[in-house]
Every structure is written in structure tokens, then in C-alpha cells.
Amino acid sequence: MNLASAGVWMIVALLLCTPALGDGGDEGMELNDGEMMSNPSLRVLVVNSYHPGWLLEEDLLSGIVEGLHREGFAATLDYELLTFWMDTKVNYTSPEEIEARGYVAIGMIEELKPDIVFVNNDNALEYVAIAYLQAHPEEDLPFIFAGTYIDPSVYSPIGDLDHPNRTITGTLERIPYEGIFGEALKVFPNATRILLISDASPSSVNSKKEFQEWYSVHENESDLEVLDFVQTNSFEEWKSAVLEYQNGTDLLGIQAYQDIRDENGELVPPAEVARWTIGYSSIPEVGMISSNVQDGMLIGVGVSYWETGIYGGIIGGEVLKGRSPRQFPIVDPGFVQLSFNLERAAMLNLTIPVCSLVRADEVFG
After folding, report:
1. For domain 3-173+305-334, which CATH number applies: 3.40.50.10300, 1.20.140.10, 3.40.50.2300, 3.75.10.10?
2. Torsion of CA 314, 319, 325, 328, to 10 degrees
3. CB-CB contact of 120 with 60 (8 Å)
4. Quick check: 334 and 172 in contact, CB under 8 A?
5. pLDDT along the chain (365 residues), means of 10
């Protein structure tokens, strides 16, 4: 954990130690271990924007469970854990389909009446949490969100990041560009150029805008020149961009590639995109999502979704004890995960500095 993350946990500790002030059976559904319980006292619903196996949301989910445990709420003993996967990355991708999946989740809430709802990523926030609160202005069902790239204050139930208007709070997701560039230069101190590339999914488009804002401020002080930020959903265009820059860049900064499609419009498995990139590129990769390293890429510097989940779970535990979500400001908690892939380092005939390996959260290969 870096110093920034440690500072965030100190802020959380202060918030949690403050006395309470008062309030100022469908597809994609899982009952998990709660099915084994005879008479659970609480119901916790977690709505995920994507599909089972999506590693980032799996990490958020396990982190939420861990955070609740640290607050004294044990799954299968103190609450029934319900999950719903909207599956809006693969099977339900049109605006109409995404909205329909949101209606299914809202129907679950109305039928099962959970005590608290966690929503992960932008679609679950907009089409479930915000839609529910707008449709039920008289209710105070608490929502905790995570993984949003946009400014959620645009939604009327939130309005203010410091003091949300309704019973909802959560965390912002912001890619740690300063940390990414810094770690890349620790491993490659002579690097001067980097090409950024990602798919063109809505979340990736939002993150590119965020990067452009960050880079406009830090460009003159950065030791890495950003040659371009390529965004495409075409596998052929992805291949062309990677090959074009083989002799023109020192580093390849890779963000998301989960929405890359072939010439027939079919989704290309992310692992296949990663395998092709590793097999045909001799440029070291710096993954802007830490899990990229598990797909074989060299370096990963990104948000720690597990720690972010713990953060939300702890807040959720406080809410279950009687505090209002409105007492917790909406922030970027700043948890960063550093990972390396030694097998890829060997392919590139590179040696990762010992100090970097010591600081790593995970090392593969």
C-alpha cells in the first residue's frame, strides 16, 4: 500500500470513529451461500454491470464481503448475499438492452427488499441505483457504488460529492496516470516515448477524456512524450496500431481491451487480444489496469479493486449499523496495485529491478 492509500485509510478511520449524526429468480441472479441459511437477518444485494468471471468486478465483490466482515457482518451467518450480473459487456450491449437489465435488477430490489445495495461500475449506477432512487423518491434504501469514471454529481439523487442528496455514496475510479508513468520510468529510465491504446467502450472513452485533462496539466513536467492515444473496437485496427509503432515508441501503454471485435462484429476474447499483442510486439507493455499482467503483459499499474471493495464494504457495514450514506463523501480512495510478469520479461530479455519487485503487490510467471 502506498502513502496515498494509507492516507485514505486514515480518513476512513476518522469518519468511522465519528459518532453518528443522523440522516442530514432471473438470469444473472445468484443467491450464493445465502441459500444455505434458514433465517438470515439481513439481505445484501450486489449488482454488477458486467458478467461472472469479469475479474475486476469479482475483486470488487470479494472486497465488499471482506469489508463487511471487518465490520462484524459475516456472510452466511449475518446476512444473505445476493448478486445480479447485468452482463452489459457481452450479451446486453445496446442502450435498450442495458436499460432492460436495469429494470430486472430494480424488480429484484422491489421483490426481495434488501437492506443495502452495492452497485459496481457505471451501468449499474445509472440504470439501477439512480433509476431506483428517482422512481422511489419516498424511500431511503442505501446504495454504495464503485467503479464510476464519470462525475456522479450529474445525477440529481447525488448532486454533491461531499454531501449526497439521497441515501447513496461510493467511490470514483480514476486511473493513476502519475503512478503509471513513474513506475514505467523506474523500470525503463531511458524511455522517452509511449503510445497509449485501448478499446473504445464508453468507460474507456471517459477515461481518455480524464487522461487528456491530466496530461494537459502535466505534459511539460513529464519525462514521457505521449505519441497518441489510440481508441478502437476493431481488432484489425488494434493490430495495425501496434505494428505501426514497433519502431516508433519505447513503451506501449495498454488500458482496456475487453470490447475488441472482429470483422464480423463478434467479441474477441480479451485473452486472445493480449496473446496477439504479446506475440507480435517487441515493445514493453505498461498495463493501466493491473489485471493486464495476468494476461501476460509486462507491467500493471492500476486501481486495486479488492481494496476499493473493502472500502465500500466497510462503509456499508457502518450503514447497516445505522449511519447514513450521506455522511460519507464520494471520493477516489486511491488504492493502487503494482504487478509484474516475469515470463514476459524473459521474452523481452529484460530484468525487472529488484526494488520494483520488492514493492510489487503481485508477480506472475
Report:
1. 3.40.50.2300
2. -40
3. yes
4. no
5. 49 46 48 49 97 94 99 96 96 96 98 98 98 97 96 97 97 95 96 98 90 94 96 98 98 96 95 98 96 96 97 99 98 97 98 97 95
C-alpha of 157 from chain center: 22
Report the distance separating Cα 100 and Cα 9, nearest Å. Answer: 37
**Alpha-carbon distance 204 to 206, whole Å?**
5
In CATH terms, the fold of domain 177-288 is Rossmann fold (3.40.50)
Helices then strands, counting H and E runs in the chain, come out as 12, 13
pLDDT of residue 28: 67
Residue 285's H or E segment, with its range, is strand 285-287
Q: Residue 58 carries which side chain, given as an amino acid letter?
A: E
The closest of 202, 296, 280, 191 to 241, measured between CA atoms, is: 280
Query: How far is 281 from 298, CA to CA, in rounded Å?
Result: 12
Q: CB–CB of 134/160 below 8 Å?
A: no
And the C-alpha cell for 110? 422491489
Per-residue pLDDT tens over the stretch 25-67: 456 665 554 444 445 689 999 999 999 998 999 999 999 999 9
Q: Which three cell numbers stand for residue 45?
A: 444485494
H/E stretch holding 83 reads strand 80-85
First-to-last CA distance in the chain? 22
At 247-263, the pLDDT tens digits run 999 999 999 999 999 99
Closest CA to 8 of 322, 361, 308, 316: 308
At 122, list the grid cell. Answer: 457505471
Nine cell digits for residue 352 = 525487472
- In the sheet with 43-48, reading across from the earlier edge strand, the strands are 29-30, 80-85, 43-48, 116-120, 143-148, 168-172
Cα–Cα dist 242/51, whole Å? 28
